[in-house]
Design a protein that fits this description.
Elements (H helix, E strand, L loop, with lengths): L3 H4 L7 H12 L3 E5 L5 H7 L5 E6 L8 H4 L6 H10 L4 E5 L2 H11 L3 E6 L5 H11 L3 E9 L8 H10 L4 E2 L6 E4 L2
Parallel strand pairs: 1-2, 1-4, 2-3, 4-5
Antiparallel strand pairs: 5-7, 6-7
């Protein structure tokens, strides 16, 4: 698996998490990443995928990001993302998660893997799971980041409520499930 480029990008994804995404991507033709930030996870997926990655984000950050973006130009995040993913099979889509899911549904676009790491509130994660799960191909994998009861209880609650058969990848904060 090729994760060196991903690990060179700032972000919170660990090496084991990048390796897991890279492995999933190596078995995928189309991936959708919901929440891309600077592109660390995007690079892990795109450097290993057989096809391409749709990167869905507003590139404005969530509430927890406001302090670290306060002194940056409004397009700073997006420009850094583009630089970090340059040359990889990535198609950025600057939309909110749910709006992007509606667009994909209308066009009949489906994916082998969908990785959710956008807004971390319970309401947003629940909406993301409900919007994106139907867009998986049969046997596709829906997964997400930051399954942590201490720091992100909203994510934990949404995943436990919406996905009856999920597992947490050992030694990571990635939750994962196959479509039924």
């Amino acid at each position: 698996m090729n994760i060196e480029r991903a690990l060179a990008v700032d972000g919170w994804l660990t090496e084991l998490e990048a390796a897991y995404l890279a492995q999933l991507a190596s078995e995928s033709l189309v991936a959708i990443e919901v929440g891309s930030w600077l592109g660390r996870s995007t690079c892990a997926i795109a450097a290993n995928i057989q096809g391409y990655v749709w990167a869905v984000d507003t590139w404005k950050g969530s509430a927890e990001h406001v302090p670290m973006l306060a002194d940056k130009p409004s397009d700073w995040l997006y420009e850094r993302f583009l630089a970090n993913t340059q040359g990889l099979p990535v198609f950025p889509l600057m939309l909110s998660s749910v709006d992007a899911a509606v667009l994909f549904r209308r066009t009949g676009t489906r994916a082998d893997m969908i990785f959710i790491d956008a807004n971390h509130t319970y309401e947003s994660v629940k909406a993301d799971i409900e919007a994106w799960m139907p867009l998986l191909v049969d046997g596709g994998v829906l997964c997400g980041h930051d399954f942590d009861r201490t720091y992100w209880p909203g994510i934990v609650r949404a995943v436990e409520e919406c996905i009856p058969a999920f597992h947490v990848v050992p030694n990571t904060t990635i939750w994962s499930t196959e479509a039924v």
